[in-house]
């Protein structure tokens, strides 16, 4: 039995890794398309309509859709605390893709950030993989969680509208990440309810949860496009891949009881691993090649990248 659980968990982690790669490629393509159509860090409706006609953006959306599908399958196989943190690996992948696009060698800060992020995520997954159980959620708890998350998303969206520059980018991306964290938790909750026999696929509650997932996903997608228009892709990817797992893991603990029997020592280790991943993401965002080219002439970058 334990061997089967380990195999299934390994498959889920593998799918999450592929999902991270696809997400990084999707983010790079979408940002490249959106950044040409923004005005003052804000993507207008006319700009959005122009963007959706570009093949680059369409390819990015297609890759993103495939990433979402793989992510959903991974959530069917393993708990949130195992699947969600793997997504942070999209950050170093996105940095490498951007570095290849601008043909600049990643600086030492990027290498350090990638190492911290990967180490933190791998440590988190190893520690959490064997210490999690899940149970179907209560309907009232799901409704309360949706209301709280919705309020946070609205507040962050207004913060994005009221701010400029990198603050706008972070606010929009964090709002999207919070929304997507709720989506992951709902997908996991619905799958547990259906597979346990406590709910049917066509029950009113299940269909309502599906509708909420669809609406939140579309809204989160719009927020991501606004974030791409306001800042560098690494900032967007970093915000998504750090905040999304935190929200999803917290919701998994509250709604699904994941981690209820985890010893305090393991929580402390996972906290340290998360801190390392966050530090890596911040370092990556600070030294991202695309972010640097926004404020630094290419000639200076070329000179700085030489040994």
TrEMBL record:
This is Magnesium transporter NIPA. Keywords: Membrane, Transmembrane, Transmembrane helix. The keyword Membrane applies. The chain crosses the membrane at residues 6-29, 59-77, 83-102, 109-129, 141-162, 169-187, 207-224, 231-254, 266-285. It comes from the Bacteria.
